[in-house]
Specification:
Layout (H helix, E strand, L loop, with lengths): L16 E3 L2 H5 L5 E6 L9 H14 L8 E5 L3 H13 L2 E7 L4 H9 L3 E5 L4 H15 L3 E3 L7 H17 L6 E5 L4 H13 L4 E7 L34 E5 L1 H15 L5 H14 L8 E6 L32
Parallel strand pairs: 2-10, 3-4, 3-6, 4-5, 7-8, 7-10, 8-9
Antiparallel strand pairs: 1-2
Helix pairs in contact: 2-3, 2-6, 6-7, 8-9
């Protein structure tokens, strides 16, 4: 039977759950760790879901027309998601983002037809939000989609992500680990799964250097995509059971391990979430349990960042693999 999609947005979702094998064994995990690989979405991140849902919801509500200018502050992946959806629908888009975001993200946004306005790195997402609001006040027919407070954000995770996890684990999932960028993923997934299985535990990950959810002060950090420096309005703070603070020195090596031991190309924040899952998987009370980790994005979006700064791109020696008699 033929299967043809009408446009690229119809390919969003139904991302696979893949077991973490060699990395889990190397860390002595006693629980099963399953990675929900969101980089299988068309533009390679979990944010493809909300990029579509926020624009689609606004179009249906009459808030976006062909003459509208969409403006959004973004740390990168939400912007990419909005950019490909806007391109597919013929809409104009301006994105404001901290200048610390990776070169790959910025280039891809422009390739997809979006306009990019960079803001001061130390000001984080607060600076990007302020710039978006400033532009919206000046540009006619503009609309800010407000990913941090837009109800279409958690709604798409209730409708799709949560249902996919429940379906693919046959309801056997015990723990879900997710980061908090906007908070939409953990909110939407948690609300659905806890209603069906009250004993399920939702665990959120945040940067140790910016522990806002834990009640600490915001600060600069290198875990792109999570830790916005404030508690997002869309986040249901009652839905999670535990917060795990992660240091870059811990998450970075785990990101590389997963790439090299399991062949799964995870990115920066994904490493933080997997590190947290590995800690959970070593706790005696979690022996034999099933842990699902939402893996937001892939390695390729972070090649120019600190995480892979030590990678040598020159020719590698192979003499150690050649028998001495033939060398």
């Amino acid at each position: 039977m033929a299967k043809i999609y009408n446009d690229i947005t119809e390919t969003i979702g139904n991302t696979p759950l893949v077991r973490l094998n060699r990395t889990a064994a190397a860390h002595g995990a006693q629980a099963e760790i399953l990675l929900k690989l969101e980089f299988f979405n068309p533009l390679s991140s979990v944010k493809d879901r909300i990029g579509f849902s926020m624009i689609d919801d606004a179009i249906k509500a009459g808030k976006i027309t062909k003459d509208s200018v969409i403006i959004e502050p973004t740390s990168g992946n939400t912007g990419i998601a909005l950019a490909f959806v806007a391109a597919a629908k013929g809409l104009k888009l301006i994105l404001t983002m901290p200048e610390t975001m990776s070169t790959e993200r910025r280039k891809l946004l422009k390739i997809l037809g979006a306009r990019v306005v960079l803001t001061e790195g130390p000001k984080g997402m607060k600076g990007a939000i302020a710039k978006a609001e400033e532009l919206a006040a000046k540009i006619p027919k503009s609309i800010i989609l407000q990913q941090f407070s837009n109800p279409a954000n958690p709604a798409i995770h209730r409708k799709t992500t949560a249902e996919e996890i429940w379906r693919d684990t046959d309801g056997k999932v015990d723990i879900v680990v997710a980061g908090v960028g906007t908070g939409g993923t953990i909110t939407g997934v948690g609300e659905v799964l806890k209603a069906r299985k009250p004993g399920i535990r939702m665990v959120v990950v945040e940067p140790d250097a910016s522990p806002v959810l834990s009640g600490g002060a915001p600060g600069p950090h290198k875990l792109q995509g999570i830790g916005a420096g404030f508690v997002p309005a869309v986040l249901n703070t009652k839905i999670y059971d535990e917060i795990i603070r992660v240091k870059e020195a811990d998450s970075g090596p785990v990101s590389k391990q997963v790439n090299q031991l399991d062949g799964i190309p995870v990115g920066i924040s994904s490493g933080a979430m997997i590190w947290a899952a590995l800690q959970l998987a070593r706790r005696p009370e979690n022996n034999g349990k099933q842990i699902v980790v939402i893996v937001p994005s892939s390695t390729e979006r972070y090649l120019s960042t600190w995480l892979f700064a030590d990678i040598n791109v020159e020719s590698d020696p192979v003499d150690d693999l050649i028998p001495a008699a033939d060398a």
